[in-house]
Automatic annotation (TrEMBL):
Pfam families: tRNA-synt_2 (PF00152), tRNA_anti-codon (PF01336). Residues 188-191 are annotated as: Aspartate. Belongs to the class-II aminoacyl-tRNA synthetase family. Type 1 subfamily. The gene is aspS. It comes from Candidatus Gottesmanbacteria bacterium RIFCSPLOWO2_01_FULL_43_11b. The keyword Ligase applies. This is Aspartate--tRNA(Asp/Asn) ligase.
Length: 463
């Protein structure tokens, strides 16, 4: 039976079988030290005979667990009080020399090469820890919400455009040549439809796709967010739930971190811009303290911004574009300003800020057909564009509860909380900043038959 490295401390005097990788090999003349690494950690093994295994080989070892003499213990590793005297060693699979070291934090290694050999990069302990923590974070979120009567629902990936202000990825349809699906920029419309459907409390660990230029807090192409939506609630309910969720998550999974201020400060967009010149202020007291987490809310955003070149998606003749997205509700006191002075209308948007990063955003939504229609007009939608959202307006004629939600980014939260320099450090197989996928090297050309089946002719291909 296999024993894990971490279990050896409880097996002094016993013969064990270990399986894993050779983490390091140290030759001291007639004695060889091998550190074996498995998912539980590392244990030192020692042999006085020849042991041919080299770094990163996968091995199986039978050996005797021995207590190390007092002066030979290694307090740096949990198994530092024992070592395994090798009886027999079998090389299961040999490893070539790795393209880069994995016993460092890896920040100084070129991204392209880390990405090409991501499966090796993940062997480094920092990456390994990040992915394990990420898994725990997702499990914590899931349990927290399920305990509070939320329903987890998967929404389609092959869908129609869901504008969040970025460019869509489109997927050609084989069955209806000349037509395309869009990958969702978020499940925004589906989650609102699920409120019409009466679920009242929805969440999803949702993959979102946006064809926008990469930034350090956003990987190119895709990212994951906790998407949630609730009915019959106020904005305050959303803020309180989110605060409780993340505060208890930090307390349980990141006990070394402390939160600067609770309850989290809620700052109006106007004040925050005046005081900090940004809507995502870094409110840490000590910016050198890597264990400080300064959460805050930015609220009372204007519903619209002046339209800029980046708002290519909306009607080109319009003066305004949504500052969050087109489903955000105007402040009820400002509805009369929609016609007169739309730029003065406040929106019921809330942004979640952590250490200077926007890690989530959401809003109370429009649930009246007329108001939604008016917003479509104000952002300059043509009748054709409006038609693309007809299903929302139709749904709103069948009894729609007031609703709202939020979508904290999982990658972004982890990046900000761990102080990692990029979201890619908390993703298993991120796309590089030039849009190349890890290891598999997509995008790549499609085969001739595939293109024929799709009815697509590619005009020019860079060679
Ligand atoms: N759909 C929004 C986003 O992805 C979040 C929300 O409004 O709930 O940013």
């Amino acid at each position: 039976m296999r024993t894990l490295a971490a279990e050896t401390v409880d097996k002094i005097g016993q013969e064990v079988t270990l399986q894993g990788w050779v983490n390091t090999r140290r030759d001291h003349g007639n004695i060889v030290f091998l550190d074996l690494r498995d998912r539980s950690g590392i244990v030192q093994m020692v042999s006085t005979k020849t042991a041919d295994a080299g770094s990163e080989d996968v091995i199986e070892v039978v050996g005797l667990v021995k207590k190390r003499p007092e002066n030979m213990t290694n307090p740096k590793i949990p198994t530092g009080t024992v070592e395994v005297e090798i009886t027999s060693i079998k090389i299961i699979s040999e490893a070539k020399e790795l393209p880069f070291p994995i016993d460092t934090d890896g920040y100084d290694i070129e991204e392209e090469i880390r990405s090409k050999y991501r499966y090796l990069d993940i062997r480094r302990s920092r990456m390994n820890k990040n992915l394990r923590l990420r898994s725990k974070v997702v499990a914590f979120i899931r349990n927290f919400l399920l305990e509070r009567e939320f329903v987890e629902v998967e929404t389609p990936i092959l869908t129609k455009t869901t504008p969040e202000g970025a460019r869509d990825f489109i997927v050609p349809s084989r069955l209806q040549k000349g037509k395309f699906y869009a990958l969702p920029q978020s499940p925004q419309q589906y989650k609102q439809l699920l409120m019409v459907a009466g679920l009242e409390r929805y969440f999803q660990i949702a993959r979102c796709f946006r064809d926008e230029d990469p930034r350090k807090d956003r990987a190119y192409g895709e990212f994951t967010q906790l998407d949630l939506e609730m009915s019959f609630i106020t904005q305050n309910d959303i803020l309180e739930l989110t605060e409780k969720l993340f505060s208890s998550l930090v307390a349980e999974l990141m006990p070394e971190k402390h939160i600067t201020q609770t309850p989290w400060p809620r700052l109006s967009h106007k004040k925050v811009m005046e005081k900090y010149g940004t809507d995502k202020p870094d409110l840490r007291k000590d910016k050198n303290d890597k264990n400080e987490l300064a959460f805050s809310w930015t609220i009372d955003f204007p519903l619209f911004n002046k339209q800029s070149k980046e708002d290519f998606y909306y009607g080109s003749g319009a003066k305004v574009a949504p500052s969050h997205h087109m489903f955000t509700a105007p402040h009820p006191d400002d509805i009369s300003l929609l016609d007169k002075n739309p730029l003065k209308v406040r929106g019921l948007q809330h942004d979640l800020v952590l250490n200077g990063f926007e890690v989530g955003g959401g809003s109370i939504r429009i649930h009246q057909r007329e108001v939604q229609d008016k917003v479509f007009d104000l952002i300059g939608f043509t009748p054709m564009q409006k038609k693309q959202f007809e299903h929302m307006l139709t749904a709103f004629t069948y009894g729609v509860p007031p609703h709202g939600g939020i979508a904290p980014g999982i990658d972004r939260f982890l990046m900000a909380a761990l102080g990692e320099p990029s979201v890619r450090e908390v993703m298993a197989f991120p796309t590089s900043s030039s849009g190349q996928t890890s290891v598999m090297d997509a995008p790549s050309e499609a085969g001739k038959t595939q293109l024929v089946e799709l009815g697509i002719t590619v005009k020019s291909q860079k060679k």
